[in-house]
Here is the input.
Amino acid sequence: ALAGEGDPVGRIVFSTPVIEEADGFRFYQLLYTEAFGRLGYDFELHSHPVKRSMASANQGVTDGDTGRIEKLITSGEYPNLLLVPVVIGQADVAIFTRDGTETFTSWDDLDKFRGTDVVIAHTRGFVAVELELHKHVDASNIFITSKGVQDCMMLAAGRIDYFIEPKAVIEQFIQEGLCDGDGVKLAGIVETVLVYPVLNKKHADLAPK
Here is the structure.
């Protein structure tokens, strides 16, 4: 939150769903420390679960969130948040299988799973998936996990058939040994989404700067 009115330097606090150990956390920390530093503010970054991160920003507990897709902000679920119209990155929404023999290039490629017993997992709060997946498969085809590492473990163990997550996140898990690269293979990108900073509306004056 901002410092007192007579204080010459304020403090901006953002939340992020990215875990502190990830490269993405360090990227956001450097990016926003520099950006808000130029405006005269100190910057703090706190890691929270996906839904809590957005709720904290929406309720004004934090001042914003590091990066979200436009569809989430325009959905009406978070009325106190505004999207800063500056693209800070993009995320490849990827589908993974055990053997990598199939190729997917769009959400429409998943339509074939309607009426089957195929199970596709994704983490709770991954909005790019939640907004699209149910349009293409049945509810019985969807399994929701609490974290991406759980997707990896379930796929490698044969408990699910596919999972959909940000490509960069799973690649990071594999690199760090948190995900079995032999049992988790990229099968394609179904969507690439642009990511924008998000501010609580009480700081709307900062958005254009």
Remarks:
- Helices lie at 23-38, 50-59, 70-73, 127-130, 148-156, 167-175.
- The two ends are 18 Å apart (CA to CA).
